[in-house]
Amino acid sequence: MRILHVEGGRHLYGGAYQVLHLLRGLAARGHENLLACPAGCALAEAAAPVARVYGLPMGGDLDLAMVVRLRRLIRASRPDLIHLHSRIGADVMGGIAARLTGVPVVHTRRVDNPEPRWMVALKYRLFDRVVAISEGIRDVLLAEGLPAETLRVVRSAVDYAAYARPCARASIADRLGAPEDALLIGVVAQLIQRKGHADLIEALPPLLDRYPGLQVLFFGKGPLADTLAAQIDQKGLTGRIRLVGFRDDLAELMPCLDLLVHPAHMEGLGVSLLQAASAGVPIVASRVGGIPEAVRDGENGLLVPPGDITALGAAIETLLTDPARRRALGAGGQTLMAREFSIDAMVEGNLAVYRELPAEGARAKPE
C-alpha cells in the first residue's frame, strides 16, 4: 500500500513523533510511505530513511494554496490512501485536496478541544475515517455529532524500551545543573495556556519551602515562555523553577525525574505521560480528556481536577513524602505501557483502519 502522510508540525515532538513511529512501522511491514511536511522541518530529516519526503510550504489554516500544492502532489505520486496527521491547515486543506482527487482519506485527531457542531458537520465529511488517539477524544467527537461509523480509536504509542533505562544520576544532574541529591519534578509540555504551567507555579511555593532540595524543570518551548518566567520571578522562585527549553535527550533525562506533573486543562492523551510511565516515573496529572487512559489513578499516578491548585499541591506532596509509593507507581506505569501502548499496536490499529476503505469500494484514484 502506498500512503501519503501529511503533517504540518515543524518540531519533532508530540504528534510528529507519533507520525515517525507509524512511518517506521509501516515501512517495516512493506508499505510505501510518502510524507508531505514543511520544508526543512525536523520530521523531514528523521523520516528520510523510511519515507519519500516532500517539503512543502505550509502556512496554516488560512493557506488556501495548500490545496493546490497537495492536489498536485497527489496527482503526481498516486497514493492509495492519504493520512492527515495534524491540524494547522493540513486537515481541511488536505481533506479538500483528497476529495478533489478522489483518493480515500483518513484524519487523525490528537486534541480534545471542542469544535462547534456546524464545523464538525462540514469539516469531518471530508474524511472517510477519523482516528481519535484516545477514548476521551472519541467522546468529544461523538458529542459534537460525528457519526460513530466514521470514528475509530487508535491510541498513541511510546517507544517503551527507549525510556525504560537506568538513571545515570550523577551525569544527568550535572547536565541539568542540579545537585545530585535534588528532588526533581519535570513538566514536559509546550508552553501554552492549556498545559496548566501557571497552576503549578501557584501550587509550588509551600512545597518549595518544605523541601529545600526540590527543583522544578519546565521542558518545552512556546509563546508563554516570557509570561511564565515573569510569574516565577514575581513569586521569588527563580532558580527553583527553571525553563530549560526543548531537549532531544529526554529518553536519558526522564528516568532521573522523581515525579512528572501534567496539570493540563485540556489534553488528547499526552505523549509525555507515556514517556514518563515507560521511564518508571510516577505522575500527577489532571483528570481531563484522554489523560485517565495514560494515568490510571493509584496505578501509575494520581489524578486531580483540572485547575484545582489546592488538590494539585496536595497530590504532589503525597508523593514527595512517600518514596516507596513513588517507586510502586513507577513500576505500575512501566507495566501499563508495555501492556497497552506499544508501537506495534498503534501501527496495526492504523493499518486496520486503512484496510476498511478499499473493502468498502473506495473512491477511484485520480487519472
Automatic annotation (TrEMBL):
InterPro entries: Glyco_trans_1 (IPR001296), Glyco_trans_4-like_N (IPR028098). Pfam families: Glyco_transf_4, Glycos_transf_1. This is Glycosyl transferase group 1. GO terms for molecular function: glycosyltransferase activity. Residues 14-159 form the Glycosyltransferase subfamily 4-like N-terminal domain. It comes from Thiocapsa marina 5811. It comes from the Bacteria. Keywords: Transferase. Signal peptide: none annotated. GO terms for biological process: carbohydrate derivative metabolic process. Residues 172-333 form the Glycosyl transferase family domain.
